[in-house]
Each structure stands twice: as structure tokens, then as C-alpha cells.
Amino acid sequence: MRQTHSGLRGKRAQALAEMAVMVPFLVIGMMGMLDLGRAFYYQISITNAVREGARYAATPFYLGLNPVCATSPQPPGANCPTPDNTHIQDHVINELNGTGINLQRSDIQVQPDESMRVSDIIGASPESGYAISVSATYKFNFITPIIGSLIGDPLTIRTTSWFRAEY
Question: Which domain holds residue 57?
């Protein structure tokens, strides 16, 4: 049997109608995958920045006889062995430069507080390094409305890193 020209036109019209129905779902699916990729990128970037902040907090700032950090507004101790919370928070924020992630100092927490770190340093023996934690919280907003309603918009990204103090 031979198909007539109108039979081919009917199949083309059916394919066009099916494509018109499926294209919005494909576009939303691709946008959703891009959104989830962005969320993972933000999570990884914030985790790396927090890890670098904790490493910075755990390493000795300066242990010389004439400390350079004595000129800062509130050095943590007599020899300034640990950076203060503001310097640690700034270090985390600087690690995120160029990523498009805007964390504020209020989103970054350092534990123990700098006053406790100083008393721990003064009263501690050299081999008793204690843990310093740096954590950050970020509210991630999805671009795709459907993904945001399924997962929760905004998605709260929380990450914490612990390092033992080296002083």
C-alpha cells in the first residue's frame, strides 16, 4: 500500500503536537538540573572557604617578640598567637571572591570565641591543641520555581570545619 501525501502530513502534525507538549517539560528539567548544579557548586565553594578559614584560625598568627598584630584593634593575646574572629571571617569571605557567593560576617561563626581561645592558649600546655570550628550558613535561592517548591526555597546551606590549634 502506498501512503498518500495527506497521511504524511498527519504524522508530521502528530509529531509536532507531541513535541509541543514535551518541550516545556524538557526545558524545566534542564533548568532544574542547572539549578541543582548551582546548589552543589555553592555547597562545595562554601565548604572549601570554611575549611580554609578554620585552617587559618588554627595556625599561629605570629609568635615573635615584637608582634606585628599589636597594631590591630584588639589583638587576642600578648603575642597575638591567634587571629581574631574578624580576621577569620574576612579570610572566609576573601576565599569566596570570584564565586558569586556573598557571605556576610554575621553568616560565619567561629568557636570558641576569641576570648576563650586566649585563655585556652595561656592556660594550655604546648601539646594540648584544642579544636577550632568555623561554620557558615547561606540561603540559596533557586531560579526554577518548580525545583524550589520541591526542595524548599530558599535552601539553607550549612557547613562546618574543625581544625586542631597548632599553638
Answer: 5-164
